[in-house]
Amino acid sequence: MKSKGGSSTLSKSITICSLGPLDDMITEHVAGHISNRCGLQYKISSRMDSPKYAFDEKRGQYNSKLILKRLTELSHNSLKFLAITQVDLFVPILKYVFGLAQVGGQCSIISTYRLRAQFYGHEPNQDLLMDRMGKTALHELGHSLGLTHCRDRRCVMYSSTNIADTDFKRSDFCPTCFELFRWQLENCGIRIKPRMPQF
Amino acid sequence: MARALRAESMKIVPPGKKKCVWMEAGVVSYKLCDNNYDCPTCVYDHAMQTKVARQKESMEMKPVGAPPEKFTATWVEKMMMLPASGRKCRYMITGEIGRKICPSAYECGTCSFDRMMQQRLQAEPLPVETPTQVAGFELADGFYYHEGHTWARPEYGGRVRVGLDDFAQRLLGKLSQIEMPNIGHELKQGEAGFSVKRNGETARVLSPIDGIVSRVNEKLLDHPELMNSSPYQDGWFAIIEPTKLRKNLKDLYYGEEAHTFTSDERERLFSMANDDLNIAADGGVSVEDISGELEEKEWGKLVKAFLRSK
Which of A60-74, A137-151, A159-173, B268-282 has the least mean pLDDT? Predict the structure, then answer.
């Protein structure tokens, strides 16, 4: 387990964990992105098993709601818990999701499956994948802290319907969402710098 | 000369808009049609007809040397002053046909070509440009949307075509039957006008406007699946002769408002479908059959929440 910050601050940090096989570089990039953007401390926990229990044979995808339910049943000694997987996720009524979170809850999950350039028939692009991962992770973290979707297409809390929406939005909160994000963290006893987002 | 050119350049007709016949005839310098070429019910047309009649009367009484009146001829009279080759048929003005010269002094009520066009245009819906994707649902541009997820599309001649939007067809899923009102039946905006059935359950669909049903899409009776495969074109429900069109349109969502409404409805649907866990997702287009996915939810509950009918 890699940790930034002492054990006394664990309950005020974000835990990032892979579900099934995943390139370590991705986990570390997501952790670094969250730390840079929000000044939050993080720890990277050891890998968990692939979420085979959530596989839906009819759809050939993994039910992210079931995974989230399973994660919430586990005990996590941290403020928020973000799982990363490379399987294809869905929720009932939607054909796919890039990520899912419990609004105001502890757990969230994101998938690399549809964030990779290869999925859209393009050449592999690691920088693009990292950019998309960072945005999706920050989006789900925002939900975990009680933020809902934003109407501003440039804000990271905008609800992406497709990958073009994710590519269009910025890796940052709009000023309104940032203030809300900061306020929610303060309610959790965490103070971050009143930095204006790059908007 | 430069002034005249500048004045001409000010007469730009925005995309999707059409010149009023009074402008087309050159009686007024600038006026766009806002009543779908339904001149008999157009307030502007009535006002102009009255104005021309008054000015004609006053011309007879006018002393010699008085300034000339501005409106001394109706648009039909102006058009009839043009050479025969310049008298455009009203379907040429509206862009529905390439070239057609009026052979009958604009007496459309007795024109056989007009009757043929009316029948043809009512039978086949106008083509729809590629719909815009909004929050994973398709929205056709230029349509007006009711909060009960029906749409209204004003067409030339004053009639309005109505149907169900993409959100509703995905929500309701594969339908087994669609029940239409009789021709001549009066509909009220926001009141049940149509019924759709699935697995023995019935959902009532609200009418987006007030008016009289003048035609129904009979193809839907044998092929209700058209409503799912082509909600904005082949799956239309009925043609309405509106009775309060302007007032009704103000109460419908259009353009950006329709986009916001659909996004909000998507959020509401997602919350309702996942109310056990209070989750939010990033990404995702809606599945084709939402009701089929939510087997545990009552169809009636979804209908009541989103079609807003009882």
Answer: B268-282
Chain B environment of A102 (Cβ under 8 Å): 277-279
Do residue B145 and residue B206 come from a single domain?
yes
Bridge partners (DSSP) listed for residue B137: B134
Average pLDDT in the B216-239 region? Answer: 93
The one catalytic residue among A57, A73, A123, A140: A140
Q: Across residues A138-149, what is the average pLDDT?
A: 94
Q: What is the pLDDT of residue B43?
A: 85
The residue among B64, B91, B123 that closes a domain is B123
Contacts of B205 (CB under 8 A, 6+ apart): B148, B150, B164, B168, B192, B193, B194, B195, B196, B237, B307, B309
- CA A74, CA A70: separation in Å to the nearest integer? 7
Query: How far, in whole angstroms, is CA B54 from its chain's centroid?
Result: 34
For residues B166 and B256, membership in a common domain is answered with: yes
Contact across the interface for B282 and A166, Cβ inside 8 Å: yes
Radius of gyration in angstroms for the set of CA atoms belonging to chain B, rounded to a whole number: 24
Task: Tell whether B147 and B247 lie within a shared domain.
Answer: yes
Q: How far is A119 from chain B (nearest CA, A)?
A: 15
Same domain, B182 and B305: yes
Instruction: Say if B31 falls within a structural domain.
Output: yes
**Boundary (domain end) residue, out of B123, B150, B172:** B123
Size of interface A-B (CB pairs under 8 A): 98
Tally of helices (H runs) and strands (E runs) in chain A: 5, 10
| Structural domain of B50 | 10-123
Q: What is the pLDDT of residues B112-154, one digit of tens each?
A: 888 888 777 777 777 788 889 999 999 999 899 999 999 999 8
Q: What is the tally of structural domains in chain B?
A: 2
Decide if A93 and B285 are in contact by the 8 Å CB cutoff: no
Beta-carbon separation of A91 and B281 below 8 A: yes
| Of B118 and B244, more confident | B244
